[in-house]
Structures are given as C-alpha cells and as structure tokens.
Write a structure and sequence with these properties.
Two copies of one chain form a homodimer.
Chain A lengths: L1 E2 L10 H13 L9 H21 L6 E4 L2 H15 L6 E5 L4 H12 L3 E5 L9 H7 L4 E7 L11 H11 L3 E4 L15 E5 L10 E5 L25 H39 L3 E4 L9 E6 L4 H10 L2 E2 L15 H6 L6 E5 L6 H22 L16 E4 L7 H9 L8 E6 L4 H12 L2 E7 L4 E6 L3
Parallel strand pairs in A: 1-11, 3-4, 3-5, 5-6, 6-7, 13-14
Antiparallel strand pairs in A: 2-8, 7-8, 9-10, 10-12, 14-16, 15-16
Helix pairs in contact in A: 1-7, 2-7, 3-4, 5-6, 7-10, 8-10
Cofactor (chains A, B): pyridoxal 5'-phosphate
Catalytic activity (chains A, B): (sulfur carrier)-H + L-cysteine = (sulfur carrier)-SH + L-alanine
Protein name (chains A, B): Cysteine desulfurase/sulfurtransferase TusA family protein
C-alpha cells in the first residue's frame, strides 16, 4: 500500500512512538499534584511546552496544548473574538480556510457577528490588498491559513499580518499544514496547529496567543493550560507531539527538496498521461508534498475506489464523495474544476518508486471510470448552421454526468450557437463553467428553470 | 513509592498499554476516509464504541468519545440545556459535584440561567426528596455524580433518576469515579466518564445521551462523533480506553472486595492511631478504594509533603493546598472539617503491605506537622467562674492556625462562657464549627468585625 494522504493524517513518526511509550510510564499522573508522580508529569509537560514553543517561535507561556487542531481553532477564534468584543464582532477569513475555521465563522454569525470571506485567485491564494479592503472599524479578528490543505498553495501570511497589524487587528494563522516544514513567518498574533498532521499522535493541538493580544476564554472555566484548554492534560501524547515536531523539523529541509521533486513530477506528468485533466494550486508557492488535480468526466469516489484497489490511498475534495454532497469549497472558491478531484499528499519518506507506480496506474484508473460513465472520448468536428438553443436534460443526474452530457452534444452545436444544460445537481454550477474554461467554450450564465437551473454554454471552437 | 491517588488519575492498565501500542499502527488514519487505512481506523473506532457501550449499558449510537471527561461534562450539559431551552433554563446540581459540573453550572448562570445546588448530608449524600423539591416547571436539566470524588460516597442515582423521570426532566450522571466498578443503575438520561480514571489513557472521555433525549450540540459545527465532539478522533487512545474498561470490569468484583477491606482498615485504624481525626464520607455506601479523613491542627500541604517524603502520593481537598486557597467545596458542603485533609484512593492491585506501611507512617507525619505549628496536645481542665468574652486575635493567620489558637485557649474559658476568634481566613468559617462539633463545644455563630469576622464559641465541657 502507498499512503498518499498525509494532509489528512500523517503516519506516526518513529520518534513520536518512542516518546509516547516512554512517557506513558512517567506522564500519566496529574501535573497539578505536588507528589512525585505529579512533579514528574509537570516536568514532562513543561519540557514539551518549551520544545514546541521553540519550534513555533514563541514564548512557552504563549502556547497551550489543546485536544486537537480543530479544538485549537474553535477555542482560539472564540477567545480572540470575545477579547475584542468592545471593538466589534466582524471577522475576516479567507474563502479557502479549513472547515474548522469556517464553522467557527458560522458560529460567529449565528451569535450576531458578521463575517467577510476574502476570495482567492485561481491558484488558491489570497491577496493582502483584499484583506486590507475587508478591514473595518469593527473588525475583531482576521484568520488566514499558512497554506491550503486541499491544493497546497502557500498564503502570503507575512503581508496579511502586516496589513492587520497596521490596523490593530489580530491575525490568527491556521498553520496545520505547514508547521512541520518550518515556523510561520510574519508578525501574526495567534497560531493553531495539529500534531497528527506532522507525524505526532492524534489528540494534540497547539494554540499560541502572543503576549499583549486580548484573549477571553469561552465556555466553562477550567484552571488547566492557562484556562484556555479545559480537561486533564494528555501528557504522553503531548510529549510525543513535541518530540516528533523537533524530529520532522530536523529532516524538513532535505525532505522538502525531495518531495517537491516528486510532486513536481506528478504536476508535469499527469496532464501528459491523462487527457482532460486540470492540475490546480499554485505551481511555485506551494507545500512540498501536496499536488491536486481534477479529471473531467470522472466522479471522485469511483476514482478513489479504483486507486484504492490499485494500492493507493488518496483523498478527494470532489463533489462526489459520499460524506459531503456539495463540491469542495476550496475548489469552487478557486473557480477550478471540482469533478474527479484527486489530492495526493506525500508523507515524508515516500519512495520515488511509489510515485512512479502511481503515474503508471492513474491513466488506466481514470479511463476505466470514464468508460463506465460513458464519457465522450473526443469532441466531434464543428458543424455550422444547425439548430440553436439545443437543450440537454440532465435532471436527476449527479456529477459528473451533467458535464458528460454536455460534452457529448457540444459537437452537435454550431459554432456561435448555444446549448442549455438542465441540471438540479449543485455541482453543475461550478463544474460547467470550469469545463468551459478548460474547453475554451463560453459560459454564458445560469437561467432559472422549473427544476434546478439551465446552464447556458456557447460553442466557440 | 506508593501511589494512593487513583481518584485523580489511575496508572495505565497493562491492557491499555498493549491496546494503545497495537492501535497506533492500525488506527492513526482518518476514519472518515474510504481507503484501506481509513476503513481500518473506522473498524477500530466502531469496535471500541460497541465495547464501551456494552460496559455502560447503552446503544453504541448513544455514545460518543470526547477528548476528556471534563469536555464530556461541558459538552453534555451545554447540549442538554440547549435542547430544552423552550422548557426553561433552570439547572439542578448537587453541591458536591466535580468542578467541571460546577463550572458548567456557573456558565449556565452567566448565560442567564438559574442553578439550584442541592445540599448533602454530613456523609456527603444527596436525598432524592431534595431533588424533587428543587424541580420546577422551567427545569431543563438535573446533574448528579454517581459517587463523590473526594470522599467516595455513593449517590442515590436510581432514586433521583426516578424523581426526574416522573417530572420529565433529564438527568445527567457524572460517572467518572464509578464506571470502572460497574454500570450506573437507574433510568438516567445522559452519562459522562473519563478513561484515565479507570486505568485508560488520558485524552478520552465518554458522553452518552439516551435516544429520545433532546440534545443540541453547542459551539461550531463538526461532523465527527455525531456532531457532539469536535476534532479528529484519537483512535489509538479510544481503543485503549475501551479495552482497559473491559479489563478492569473483569477484575472489578474481586478487587472491590479486597480494596474495600483495605480502606476499611484505614477508616478503623486512623482514628485509633492519630488523635483529633475525623474520617469523612459514608461508611457503608461508598466506593471501594477511597477513604478520606481530616486532621485537626494540621495544614494539608505540609502533611502531603511529609507523606510524599515517606513515599506516599495522596491528595487533599484541604483549604491549605497551594493551587486553591479556598476550602474544598465538598467538605464544606458536608459541614465536616476541611483542615489537614487527606484523601487516600487506592488503585486496583494495591498490596495490603503498602496500606499497613501507610498506617505506620501517618501518626509520625501528623505529629511532626502539628509540632511545627505549635498545636495543642490536650485541652486543659475546665476552670469555672473566670472571665467571659475572651478574644483570640488570629487575624492574618491562615488555616489551621485560627483553630489552633482557639484550641490553645479553650482551657481558659469557663464552662458556659464564650470565646471570640477573630479571623480573616475564609477557611475559619467552616473549620471552627467543624472543630466545635468534633470537640463537643457549642458553635454560637459569626459576628461582623472590623477585619474578617468574629466566630463565637461556647465552652460546654
């Protein structure tokens, strides 16, 4: 098996495993107690805090351990918003944040606050100017990921932090995807991370709040972790998290070069090997281990299943996964194709041979899915002067079928004429424009219909 | 070293350690993913949920795993209160709940709700009738621990559950101290527990909500654990928690008998070996492994330090611990002495010899602390007809010094006359009446004073 989904969860680093085993004997007691076992637990906790703070680039007393990265995000955003309630209740986030940030933003709105979602480029990056424009007198907090979890695009955190700092607004950085590779640059105010993303154990998140940043913990009081993370400390896991962070950092510079070459290989070869593919995300400012592409006329779940059968564990932000029926918010915010989406995220240590084998397996897997779905193999030559206003009825058909139906008839549409695709699948709203862009056809727009909507496409070539 | 603080955190059970090590290899991936590693993680999570549900006596889909017992309590109370907001915002708790419950109750009050704190007997038990009286038309929720964490007293959960059920009010049971010993009886609606209390790893709590009980999760949305526990699941720890719960249950019946004999030995011998001691908590309806006593004229922190030097790790709910300067809320609610308090909570497997050695060490440790504090060794014979209204100035002196000063002068007070103790230490408010009860003197009451208060005591014997 080749596990290529490190962006979801990295396999446990050997150092994490050793540290966890060792600290189960020393770190199980209550660090608030004064007796020997308690003092030993406290020493381990303090040492882990110092090591983690050094890796983050903060003071130990600015860092608390939470039970997960999601919990760090939820508690961090809630505490920072409450700390600046007098200023206002306006929150700025990028439109491609992790769901934990977007859910916290929804909670802010449900509580009477307002949220601005800053758009991104087609490469998935925000612009510092857009954050500057979003700032208001009542802005309590801005949030920005250090790098995107679905496409790997690195965000201009230092520039956004400078813009926020100038306005006196704190910036929280979700560093979940990047902290293993290095500290987050710039003058940020708060930072969150998750140990199982860098090879640490599950059950440990980091919440860092710089001295001088107003923070009011929400929820019932609890004296542990400076009142910012309720519940008994999971010291064995915390020790393992800190030890593995140091270990992955020691290997980061060399491993980043190696993985970047492997993902570059995928970026370059996939469009050569597989027709009708769009590689997404910034080709240069990106994380070393992540590469994401979308395949026309493919549903992501079937493709993942084929790849799993071939021994590859990858994930998908596609609209066609079983757990979420809406398209990936990241891909739709970027305006790129979301159907047949595959994210490859290589764990450190991935052998080059596994990547080569993936490249040898992928074309057949995509072709197999397309064949089952009856996808068009090529567009027929354009015929001029035929009927206008052709209508494709794709009602009741789920992604990627509406796009497949469109592709099947486009050859019958005269150049300059339009075709209407009737669809009640939400994904069509993003995938039909994305298809037009890939195929160099014109997406005219969306029209109301009795059921779903009519998506109007004009044939250009 | 003898570790006698299992009620804070139990050492890891060998089965927990084995299960944790095994599941680190199998359970690190995201159980929401469809590939092989994700499916394996899902299988482990499902099996752990079934095993835990069986131990609790509930359906697997009624149980979610949280990151700690505290988190289970906080999320459980918040979700149950919100689920019944239409009914009202009145919460009933006992006055001897764990701080996590009391902090959640404070959060309820801060949010506009009202809280009734049901008193307890001198043994630390609530009365079902008191819960019945506390019920109101706007009562949203009642909470009761299965057994007390400081004194071991078992609560009448089944009776209280019946009273609540009759009124249509859900009852949440905090079973943190008892779940390792057996399921909680009675028709409760929700239950919380914490794995590290039964020998499981830290980082795992249980939240059980019976089908049909209204529950509205609070905080930002998250799809994991039925939306009731945000954040990536800590599957290795969850597997270890479930496996160790089954293991301790298999040993529970036999070990309960053995530990009960050992704690009974402490209950009986300590008052014989150490003068001026009060053993607290119910002598019969109690947990097998917990025994608690308070020593007059002793500060708990010094005594814990002496016992630690002698190789015993115990804890104290005393007013004199460093982390909290107020007396234990449990002991004050019971109306018993809080000074010089020691809680012995034996982990399963504690050898009888360790308990005997504790009994041999304790008298010297107490005598040593008393000597340093200048505690009275005996009350002088009563002299009649001397001056009334003697005043002891204990201002600026912390527990146990005000009681020591009182004891020193009581011999000078004529029988029938009173003495006033001036004190600005909060603990005196509970400790002077408790001393009177132990010494069979009359506690007349508290009078205002320029600083602190005057506590009036009449000599009877």
């Amino acid at each position: 098996m080749s596990y290529f989904d490190a962006a979801s969860a990295a396999p446990l680093h050997p150092v994490a495993r050793q540290a966890l085993a060792a600290s189960l004997d020393e770190g199980w007691a209550d660090p608030a107690r004064l007796y020997r076992e308690g003092r030993r637990a406290r020493l381990l906790l303090d040492a882990a805090r110092e090591a983690s703070a050094e890796a983050v680039g903060c003071r130990p007393d600015e860092l608390v351990f939470t039970a997960s990265g999601t919990r760090a995000v939820h508690s961090g955003i809630a505490g920072l918003l409450a700390g600046r309630r007098r200023t206002g209740r306006h929150l700025i986030v990028s439109s491609v944040e992790h769901s934990s940030v977007l859910h916290a933003a929804q909670a802010c709105e449900a509580g009477g606050g307002t949220v601005t979602r800053v758009p991104v480029s087609r490469a998935g990056a925000v612009d510092a100017g857009a954050y500057e424009e979003a700032l208001r007198p009542d802005t309590a907090l801005a949030c920005l990921q250090s790098a995107n979890h679905e496409v790997g695009t690195v965000q201009p955190v230092a520039e956004v932090a400078a813009v926020c700092r100038a306005a006196g607004v704190p910036l929280l950085v979700d560093a979940a995807q990047s902290l293993g590779w290095g500290p987050v640059e710039g003058d940020w105010s708060a930072l969150t991370a998750s140990a199982h993303k860098w090879g640490g154990p599950p059950g440990v998140g980091l919440l860092v709040v710089r001295k001088g940043v107003r923070f009011a913990p929400q929820g019932p009081a609890d004296e542990r972790e400076s009142g910012r993370a309720a519940g008994f400390e999971n010291i064995p896991a915390i020790v393992a998290a800190a030890a593995s962070l140091r270990a992955v950092r020691a290997e980061a510079a060399e491993e980043a070069v190696r993985l970047r070459e492997l993902t570059e290989r995928i970026r370059a070869r996939v469009p050569e090997l597989v027709p009708d593919v769009e590689v997404v995300g910034d080709p240069v400012r990106r994380l070393p281990g992540i590469v994401t592409f979308s395949c026309l006329y493919v549903d992501g779940e079937s493709l993942l299943h084929e790849l799993d059968r071939a021994g590859f564990s990858v994930s998908s932000g596609s609209s066609c996964t079983s757990s979420t029926l809406t398209p990936s918010h990241v891909l739709t915010a970027m305006g790129v194709l979301s159907e047949g989406n595959v994210r490859v995220s290589l764990p450190p240590g991935t052998p080059a041979e596994e990547v080569d084998r993936f490249l040898s397996v992928l074309p057949g897997a995509v072709a197999g899915v397309r064949e089952k779905l009856g996808a068009p193999s090529a567009v027929r030559p354009a015929a001029h002067g035929e009927q206008d206003a052709l209508v494709v009825d794709a009602l009741g058909k789920l992604c990627p079928l509406p796009v497949i139906e469109l592709a099947k008839v486009i050859g019958d549409v005269p150049v300059g004429a339009t075709v209407r695709v009737l669809s009640d699948d939400e994904a069509a709203r993003w995938d039909i424009p994305a298809w037009c862009q890939m195929r160099e056809q014109e997406y005219v727009g969306e029209e109301p219909a009795n059921r779903g909507a009519a998506y109007v496409v004009r044939r250009l070539t």
